[in-house]
Automatic annotation (TrEMBL):
SUPFAM superfamilies: Homeodomain-like
Name of the protein in its database record: TetR/AcrR family transcriptional regulator
Domain HTH tetR-type: 12-74
Stored PROSITE patterns: HTH_TETR_2
Keywords: DNA-binding
């Protein structure tokens, strides 16, 4: 988890230890998110359970907070670039252990897949709403664009990962560009 500079160092350290423990456990062969317990996460992180619950409601909350941190990294990239090259960015992030672990968990668990879909959709919706405030409304409501785009990218990414990523990311992005109407991101003239 990243340092935002405003949170106490001990809090950041504890959150990082818990996130790293979750990623390590998920990375172990045969481990699914559902099979993990808070006690296991705490033991791996060498953090007391009461400390865990001071920071997180449950393991799902820990997962959401960790994904929000990864989304902050994505948000630092140009929006249009992310929309044009989603698979190349997936490939770029795929070299990171945490991202690979999350993708593996998502493919193995319907509940994680649903949660990750919600996180991605909310992330995109918030970005689109910010763009609307700045530049005016889209021709299609931002919430609908976010659900559609996040669902499409999630499905294509899952297919791509399950098939070993044999098709180059650039080619996948070209296919996505052909399948999705880029005008959904057009904003209405004022």
């Amino acid at each position: 988890m990243k340092n935002d500079g405003s949170t106490d160092l001990r809090v950041r350290r504890t959150r990082k230890l818990l996130w790293d423990a979750l990623m390590e456990l998920l990375g172990e062969s045969g481990r699914t998110f559902e099979s993990l317990t808070v006690a296991e996460i705490c033991e791996r992180a060498m953090v007391h359970r009461t400390t865990f619950y001071k920071h997180f409601e449950d393991k799902y909350h820990l997962l959401c907070v960790g994904c929000e941190e990864l989304n902050k990294e994505l948000a630092a990239m140009d929006f249009e670039e992310r929309m044009r090259r989603p698979m190349q960015l997936l490939e770029q992030f795929g070299h990171r252990r945490q991202f690979r672990t999350l993708m593996k968990s998502e493919l193995e668990s319907a509940s994680i897949k649903s949660l990750m879909q919600r996180i991605r959709s909310d992330f995109m919706k918030n970005e689109l709403l910010a763009l609307e405030r700045k530049d005016g409304p889209f021709s299609v409501p931002a919430e609908i664009i976010a659900e559609f785009y996040a669902g499409a990218i999630n499905g294509i990414a899952a297919w791509w990962v399950q098939h070993g990523g044999d098709i180059p990311a650039e080619t996948m992005d070209r296919y996505i560009g052909q399948l999705l109407n880029p005008s959904i991101f057009n904003q209405q003239s004022q």
